[in-house]
Design goal:
There is one protein chain. The chain has a domain of about 240 residues: TolB, C-terminal domain (Neuraminidase). Strand 24 and strand 25 form a beta hairpin. The strands form seven sheets. It has a four-stranded antiparallel sheet with strand order 1-25-24-23, with no helix packed on it. A four-stranded antiparallel sheet has the order 6-7-9-10, with no helix packed on it. The longest helix is centred in the N-terminal third of the chain and has 28 residues. By secondary structure, it is mainly β.
């Protein structure tokens, strides 16, 4: 009996080895599966001419000079230019530093609130008050840890995989953190944030001051609060309260965090009062068009479908039901691939495949007069700055610049002299001027 047991165990071990060798041989012989790309699928049809793939401008841009000012920044996301010419730069680790044109970079300013870094959530935008010269107020967006959690960085799965597999009830009880907008006074010596205040919850991408003094704050889709997957893969969301409260939206608040009395949803008690529009996926660039006073927003699609939209109060921009992109495995979103529908605001322009945008400005300077009134976009995936020539609200030409940098363009700001200040994902701050 004892001998038969040993024989059976030995035979089982041999069988396991043979099976493992067979699997190894099969894996070695099988070709590697190619990465799924948007280019492998038919491009979506635009709703009107030149909504995508606009031609090159009739006259290309002049040659530029690129000077690297600062290196060694860690995950830079945004910059704001102070009246004295210095710059505030945000870093993913939750730091704001002061940079100078001579290459100096300060230690992180003190007094920042507790922050959490997980997946794409971290410290993002920073802007200065239009009246900064008198009040020294700065505003920024960040991701706050839940009460009692130690500030710091978490692995990716704590925001994605661990959330996707949970039910809606479980998701809503999870202690993940909160998108937040805050402000404080920058001390006279530029070393501390004083009198910090939380202004709003629920958005933490770009901040834009409107001509009337109110603030727009863009925010990404908060899929964890409703029955959704991050890329909108298998559902159609028809509940209007879910769309207005949890898909990506723009907030509109006053500088002190109070709600403007003419916000569009104040008479609808099931919609958060700060909500201005909704149906975005991840809007990481925003600016006011100085010619019209309208807010323009640029956002990431899923696989394909990055787009620019003009924002309207109460506007529905489609996500997750409508998109010019696809799921990351190539399937159509919600099995239908809808790009237009009743009440859905069409983008001014979209890209297929992606450019991975993260900045948008309207150029108004004198250094490049041929760019006046043009939109400049930071392309991370495109590794370029993208110039869009406008005719009214229509894009009539597209040109890709700064390709020689071979870097992901994260942020673009126009300096007072008309040059451009550029943040790239390799941790550099550069100045772009006319050659």
């Amino acid at each position: 009996m004892h001998m038969r047991t040993h024989v059976k165990r030995f035979a089982a071990a041999i069988a396991n080895v043979v099976a493992m060798l067979a699997l190894l041989a099969a894996a070695t012989a099988a070709p590697a599966r190619a990465q799924v790309r948007a280019e492998d699928y038919p491009a979506p049809k635009p709703a009107f001419p030149q909504q995508t793939n606009a031609p090159a401008p009739s006259k290309p841009s002049p040659a530029v000079k690129i000077d690297t000012i600062v290196t060694g920044l860690r995950g830079p996301w945004s910059l704001a230019i102070l009246p004295n010419g210095k710059m505030l730069v945000t870093e993913r680790g939750g730091f704001i530093r002061v940079a100078e044109m001579n290459g100096f970079v300060s230690a992180p300013i003190e007094g920042m609130p507790d922050q959490k870094q997980v997946a794409a959530e971290s410290l993002h935008d920073v802007v200065i008050d239009p009246d900064f010269a008198h009040n020294r107020m700065i505003y920024f967006t960040y991701f706050a840890p839940p009460p009692g959690e130690t500030p710091g960085s978490w692995p990716l799965e704590y925001f994605y995989a661990n959330v996707w597999k949970a039910s809606v009830a479980e998701r809503r009880a999870m202690r993940i953190g909160m998108e937040r907008v805050g402000r404080g006074r920058l001390s006279e010596d530029e070393r501390r944030l004083e009198n910090f205040q939380v202004l709003a919850d629920g958005s933490n991408r770009r901040i834009v001051f409107a001509p009337d003094g109110t603030m727009f704050v863009t925010g990404s889709d908060r899929f964890r609060f409703y029955d959704a997957s991050y890329d909108g893969s298998d559902h159609m969301t028809t509940d209007p309260d879910i769309l207005r409260n949890f898909t990506g939206r723009t907030l509109r608040i006053n500088k002190d965090g109070s709600i403007p009395k003419d916000n569009p949803f104040l008479d609808q008690p099931t919609v958060a009062p700060e909500t201005y529009d909704y149906g975005h996926r991840d809007p990481e660039g925003a600016a006011i068009n100085p010619a019209t006073g309208k807010l323009w927003v640029i956002e990431h699609g899923p696989m394909g479908g990055d787009k620019i939209s003009i924002i309207k109060p109460e506007g529905n921009y489609g996500w997750p039901n409508y998109s010019y992109g696809r799921r990351y495995n190539g399937d159509l979103l919600a099995g239908k691939g809808l790009t237009a529908g009743p009440g859905i605001e069409q983008p001014v322009y979209f890209w297929y495949p992606d450019i991975a945008p993260c900045a948008l400005i309207f150029y108004t300077g004198d250094m490049f007069p041929e760019w006046k009134g043009n939109v400049l976009v930071g392309g991370m995936g495109a590794q370029a700055m993208i110039r869009l020539v406008l005719n009214g609200d229509k894009v009539v030409a597209e040109e890709r610049l700064l390709k020689e940098m071979k870097q992901r363009v994260r942020e673009i700001e126009q300096a007072p002299d008309g040059s451009l200040l550029i943040l790239t994902d390799n941790g550099a701050l550069s100045r772009v001027s006319r050659k």
